[in-house]
Amino acid sequence: MVGVSRSQPGSPEGAGPAASVDEALALVRRHGGRVTSSRRLLLRALFDGQRHRSAEELAAEVQAQAPDVHPSTIYRNLDELERLGVIVHSHLGHGPATYHLASSAHGHLVCEGCGTMLEVPSDLFGELARRADDQFDFVVDPHHFAVLGRCRTCREQEGSGTDGG
Amino acid sequence: MVGVSRSQPGSPEGAGPAASVDEALALVRRHGGRVTSSRRLLLRALFDGQRHRSAEELAAEVQAQAPDVHPSTIYRNLDELERLGVIVHSHLGHGPATYHLASSAHGHLVCEGCGTMLEVPSDLFGELARRADDQFDFVVDPHHFAVLGRCRTCREQEGSGTDGG
DNA sequence: GTCGATGCAAACGTTTTGCACACTG
DNA sequence: CAGTGTGCAAAACGTTTGCATCGAC
Fold it and tell me: Closest Cα to residue A128, out of B148, B121, B124?
């Protein structure tokens, strides 16, 4: 058991990012899924303000419109949406996974001090990706994890004297 | 609440990596801690086979010698050892955190397909680190997270026909 | 003797699962 | 009607915490 895979980068499903709620819903239908209100509501939440949100936050947004929707339904739908390539999730340090549209894929820099998260262009990982591929036959997926470190503010607050080596 | 910090890279504690169990123990004592058998056993496990191990695995190793040692003790000791700079932990995708000696710090490439983990020189992150610092005032800690992606074997098994686009 | 560490059990937060019922198509 | 999705409750998983006791120095 590895438990590390959930979605395939490269979308062998043939699905891919959807540009709207309806497009995503059509994709779901295409794959034998059904259009339910939970699903539509979740997609609306996802398309509506493309910030990262945890399953819990998304659940709250959905529940604002339909209080009966259970968190487990959110997780199940999130999972399927990811399988279809509509969304991706990333791990931002210690907290819960966050989800966002696949079309707005980007890298993440998370400060270990204050938790601030910076969205950065995948571009930033270009050199790393090249070298990982080159030296290790490993194709980096820059959207699925956060790069941890220290923002300037936190560094200044702490390291007044500790010059790294 | 951010919940992302646990250890400070750069060790403002003045502590740092220890070269042996005894050295680490001395460090613990220096900081007002006491030398207990759980602690010694845990350190032995850590120094003995420097692979990454989860708290649970380390607990199992310690318990092989002292069955009474409780997992919570492992977590507490792991935490303190990390605070002292003796060990570091990293998040390898979805699984539990893994711990290893600070002296053997390196980066991690984890395959989303098969879970294989590659230990890579921190060197690999040089360019990323430089650019993150340069463009975002962000100092990368290359040891605290895993870079997720796809190893060659998994790519070949899947992508036979799916040419990205 | 003092203060820190430990065992235990229980709680925590996030996510998954089994099941019967409701709904979509 | 067939089959998928849902709510619910409970469990799984990794980790943390309160507390009384035990142990190191």
Answer: B124
Task: Provide the sign of the torsion angle of the four alpha carbons B126, B128, B131, B132, taken in this order.
Answer: negative
Contact A4 B132 (CB under 8 A): no
CA distances from A52 to A92, B59, B105 (A): 10, 35, 30
Which residues of chain A neighbour B152 with C-beta distances below 8 Å? 137-138
Cα A39 to the center of its chain, rounded Å: 18
- Do B139 and A155 make contact, defined as CB atoms within 8 angstroms? yes
Partners of A88 in the β-ladder: A100
Select from A46, A52, A146 the least CA-distant residue to A91: A146
Task: State residue A131 phi and psi, 5-degree precision.
Answer: -70, -35
| pLDDT for residue A2 | 37
Contacts of A113 in chain B (CB under 8 A): 4-5
Question: pLDDT of A102-136, one tens digit each?
Answer: 988 899 999 998 888 999 999 999 999 999 999 99
What is the per-residue pLDDT across A130-144, written as a single tens digit (0 to 9) for each?
999 999 999 999 999
CA-only gyration radius of chain A, Å: 18
Domains and CATH numbers, chain B: 21-160 (1.10.10.10)
- What is d(CA A37, CA B135) in angstroms, rounded to the nearest whole number? 43
Report the residue count for chain A.
165
Q: Which of A93, A120, A132 sits opposite B4 (nearest CB)?
A: A93
Q: Of chain A residues 64-123, which have a beta carbon within 7 Å of strand C?
A: 71-72, 75-76, 79, 95-97
Q: Per-residue pLDDT tens for A77-95?
A: 999 999 999 999 999 888 8
Asked if A150 and B131 come within 8 Å (Cβ–Cβ), the reply is no
E strand or H helix at A30: helix A21-30
Position B160 scores a pLDDT of 61
